[in-house]
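I have been asked to look over a protein record a colleague put together. Alongside the sequence sits a line of tokens, each denoting a local backbone shape. I have pasted the whole thing underneath without changing anything:
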Amino acid sequence: MRRPTPHTALRQLEAFVGAWDMWAAGRTVGPIRTEFAWLEGGAFLVQRADVTPETALPGEWAAHAPFPTVALTGYDDTAEEYTVLYADGRGVTRVYRGSLTDRTWRQWRSAPGFHQRLTATVSPDGTTIEGSWEQSPDGERWTTDFDVRFVRTERP
């Protein structure tokens, strides 16, 4: 079966492709194995993350760990932004919007009672990604949920 032609905006996400160790919450959670790969000839970018038996999750995280997780990113050419479909091991599924400008990835969603957003920046040499997730009950008052740091372990 033939594959679709990827939108050129997806090529901007090439910096994410490969394997990473993710750390969260001030490096108290991790490493969490994370992989980004192209699907359908580059029409989508998939991100998969999971803990290994060696990964120690602190009590609060262990009780609510979302792993494994998967996110599928595509591009909406009419809205001129990315769309991210997310699912995890708890049965949580969400839809986020996203943008990439000057190596900074932004991802957000608005939902009654629980708004979320991520801002993360890829280092100039492409070996780390650092950022933080924030949450808000009303979309106006934001607090940091947790920070994230990805360290590249493999390039494609």
Summary: The chain has a mean pLDDT of 91.
